[in-house]
Write a structure and sequence with these properties.
The structure is a homodimer.
Chain A: E1 2-6, H1 9-21, E2 27-31, E3 37-39, E4 42-44, H2 46-56, H3 73-82, H4 91-105, H5 110-120, E5 126-129, E6 136-141, E7 144-147, H6 148-154, E8 163-167, H7 178-183, E9 187-190, H8 199-204, H9 208-214, E10 218-222, E11 225-226, E12 229-230, H10 235-241, H11 248-255, E13 261-265, H12 272-276, E14 281-285, H13 292-303
Parallel strand pairs in A: 1-2, 1-9, 2-5, 9-10, 10-13, 13-14
Antiparallel strand pairs in A: 3-4, 6-7, 6-8, 11-12
Chain lengths: 305, 305
């Protein structure tokens, strides 16, 4: 049994790699839901969908999210009706949001509807939201506090990050199976996701960090930072906003209290000693995942830690 | 000021004709909402949309409903997720349903959201739902009582109609502007729609029939029955189910208490005398509307009644 903590695109690549080098049924992915947002009355779960579509083999690989070959007719219609529309919602993708929203309104939990969606799309890996409760990552900027997706997608992550507000974190409890998946795993993989708004949110759910400290599983993280910059996304701005160093070391600091091994890129080999001084073993390898081969190779490295 | 009572496809054709031979801003269409249905948590208003899309010039003219050139990717996705999907929802069409549902959930009335949709789509004619309240046409069959769309679309109108149950009719009040539009009109046009489940529902909303009797407007209806059969739809089955004659005369009987003039097709000229004996004047003309010219010609005949 292997459990992964995962955000969006970077995580999904490693999840795909893992699912190819092990029995995917023995893999559980605990997914960040801090990016979840209500748009047009629909419940959008960006990271859950990226993981699901990737493992279902239908993701738009060029973008890393959405469904390959999807069209945007409905979005065009919504734009006409609302005058503006900043979040991309493909027609086929919308089926997921409509189905999810309807199930949630009918009383299902996010865990339950996620299980239904993954089953319908033929995903064998267990995908769990980190929580079934409301949890919303908000970014504090000089222009005000805004939903993460607003900061990221609407405003193009242009604003300086003054702080991060995890709305709901004080009340959110782990979704059913989350703590068990960590406690009963042989290996917990922290995917190369944003350490603040993807992994940081999962770690902020009550009991998750304690479970990571308590479990007998090996805990291995893959650095999302290469040569002082994130592979993708605004992790640099968020780390800086929290007064953290934008480096593999800066990420290692955030995980040091529970982490056994940190996998960093060869370009960051120079950081090995500093990270080991945090009490974390270091594995140096190529961490960029462009091809499927990159993904399975990195997955194997992680499994061997 | 001219006010029309309207159902779906047949009505929309005459509305289009009227909007071309008069100032469309002086036309108000009161639309049946008894077919409205919740599907996937979305509020679908089939007749409101047919009228809106037709007057906006974007209707799929071949089908008579939906948007021309629309795609069905989202529906395919919903089919995968739910295992079945019997109601056609195009991708572009879905924007309307998503927008409407979100506005209704946010507290807007159906009248308000309809006004927003028609404005956004450039429709100059005022389109009013018959009521903002829940009103659901249910068909009683030997297999049980079902929503009209279930009877019609899901089951292909194959079941014998044992009765019609207008759920909510006892409580539904006319939408704002409905009674006024009837009372202040010079002419009220009853479109060639199903007399039971399109016009019958509008007439069943409290105060509408009284307003029709009370208004000084000329009241002119166009027969939806030609040569003993409906131009389209299951009006024959519904009339028969209520023990009514399937003929222009059978429809005239249902409207006789308020109607001044009944426009019937030349093929039904033989019914003229029987209808006049109900105290209703008869105008005989070609009522089939295939081309835009047919529609404007019939609209002119109606306006001259």
């Amino acid at each position: 049994m292997i459990t992964a903590l995962a955000g969006g695109v970077g995580a999904a690549k490693l999840l795909l790699g893992l699912s190819r080098v092990m029995n995917p049924k023995n893999l559980t992915a605990i997914i960040n839901t801090g990016d979840d947002i209500q748009l047009h009355g629909l419940h959008i779960s960006p990271d859950l969908d990226i993981a699901t579509y990737t493992l279902a083999g239908i993701v738009d690989e060029e973008k890393g999210w959405g469904i390959r070959g999807d069209t945007f007719s409905c979005l065009d219609g919504l734009r006409k009706l609302t005058g503006s529309e900043w979040f991309n919602l493909g027609d086929c993708d919308l089926a997921t949001h409509i189905f999810r929203t309807n199930c949630l309104r009918s009383g299902a939990t996010l865990t339950e509807v996620t299980a239904e969606i993954t089953r319908a799309l033929g995903v064998n890996t267990r995908i769990l939201p980190m929580t079934d409760d409301r949890f919303e990552t908000r970014i504090v900027t000089a222009r005000g506090t805004m939903h993460f997706e607003e900061y990221m997608v609407k405003n193009g992550a242009k604003d300086e990050v003054l702080g991060v507000n995890l709305f709901g974190a004080d009340k959110a409890t782990p979704a059913p199976g989350v703590v068990e998946a960590i406690e009963e795993a042989e290996l917990v993989v922290v995917c190369p996701s944003n350490p603040v708004v993807s992994i940081g949110t999962i770690l902020a759910v009550k009991g998750v960090r304690a479970a990571l400290k308590h479990t007998k599983a090996q805990k291995v993280a893959v650095s999302p930072i290469l040569a002082g910059a994130p592979v993708r996304g605004p992790a640099d701005k968020l780390l800086r906003g929290l007064g953290r160093e934008v480096s593999a070391f800066g990420v290692a600091e955030l995980y040091a209290d529970f982490l056994d091994t940190f996998v960093i890129d060869v370009v960051d080999a120079v950081e090995e000693e500093r990270i080991e001084r945090l009490g974390v073993k270091v594995k140096v390898t190529n961490t960029l995942m462009k091809t499927l081969e990159d993904k399975t190779r990195l997955a194997k490295v992680v499994l061997e830690c």
